[in-house]
Amino acid sequence: MPSKTTIGPAEASFDALDAIETISRMLLASHFDPEALLKAITDVTVRKMKVKGCVLRMLNADTGELSIRSVTGLSERFLFSAPVIDIKNRFQSLIQQEGVYSLYDVRAGSDLQFSEAALEEGISSLLAVGLFEGKKVVGSLSIYTDRPVRFTRTHTQTLRVLARYAVMALELARLHRSELQLKLQSRDLAIAASIQQRMLPSVIPDADDIQLAVRMSSWYEVGGDFYDVSKIDRDTIGLAIGEVAGKGMPAALLMSGALMAYRSQMGNSRQLPEIVGAVNDLLTRDTRTEEYASLICCRLDLDEFILCYVNAGHMAPLLFRKGRVTTLTTGGMTLGICAGLTYEQGVLQLEKDDVVVFRTDGCTRATRADGQVFGERRFRRAIRSQLDASAARIADSVQAALRSFVGDAGLRDDQTVIVLRVE
Q: Rounded CA gap, 257 and 382, in Å?
């Protein structure tokens, strides 16, 4: 057995404020980068405690292992021989139970499982303390000496102070990165929302004896609802409304693709069923199984007052005529699920005082805090209350009824309404 020696890690009184200052400087120097911070922690530990090397391990929550994340002063050969420290390892058990693991002579430390490599590295003694969050071990900080050392309470206290403030610094880095990520996401969402808004029509076209009004509310900065109202030529208006699966940014990206696919096809002279079939094929080619969209595609002949439409799996529009309500369902399947589908066209001869209301399902699925759903009956009632008014008043009535119903619960889905009224 080697004789006890007084040469070893520094044992002078340790200033906690100095540790805070040191790790704070490390935190700023690393620009809150966790990996850079981990390396700075092992570097400063070697420097402060005047030891041969230092290893910082962090807990892998999925595997239960303490994995090496940062090293200072030890060779790659030694590190490659280091064992996987899992919950069955005595090292981790002692760290969990006592918060410290001390070994005077690695040759007597069968728990280490790599004493031969340690001797080749010139390591004699080991001291390790746990990194704790509350009572949970989230890692360990170990120091290695090149001569046998009887570690004292001062050594342990010094290493524990470093470990404690290392945990604090890592948590600050994590919070800073999270805050930065949220800011970046918020900025990206604002940009995406601006782009998405510019994709939608800024002006609804006018037409003699036809009123059109649109109201859209997104529950998130960006949404999955979309619409298009534009003049195809002097006597024809193209109208579309749709929604895509999901919410937030993924839905917004899919919405953009669906709207662009629709617009790329609507300008040609093909019939609506062919156009919708082509849009379906484009989406099916470019989307995954869980990504799909519903769409109603319409052409309105302003001379003959004929509305041709294809309903591709979308919530049925409502035709209010002389006290009766009819749904417009002719079409086919939802878009983006299967290529090569065919669709049917519905034809509606519009009459004076007809009101046609297109909507997305967020208009009927709006939910209060108590779980009660707005539903189809309330939706139709909001329209009926303003049937003699303008298209804009009808659309406003629906929007106001929805907001009044959900109250403080707020929106939980996108809501879009298009009202077409024949004067």
A: 32
Give CA separation, 160 vs 31, 154, 164, 167, 242, in Å: 24, 10, 6, 10, 60
CB 268 within 8 A of CB 259: no
The answer to whether residues 130 and 137 touch, using CB atoms and an 8 Å cutoff, is: yes
CB contact at 8 A, 40 and 30: yes
Distance from C-alpha of 20 to C-alpha of 36, rounded to nearest angstrom: 17
Q: Is 99 left (phi over 0), alpha (psi -120 to 50) or beta?
A: left
| pLDDT tens digits for range 312-335 | 999 999 999 999 999 999 999 999
- Cβ atoms of 170 and 146 within 8 Å: the answer is no
pLDDT value, residue 21? 62
With beta carbons less than 8 A apart as the criterion, state whether 422 and 300 touch.
Answer: no
Instruction: Indicate whether this model's pTM tops 0.85.
Output: no
| CB atoms near residue 322 (< 10 Å) | 7
Tell whether the model's pLDDT for residue 420 goes beyond 50.
Answer: yes
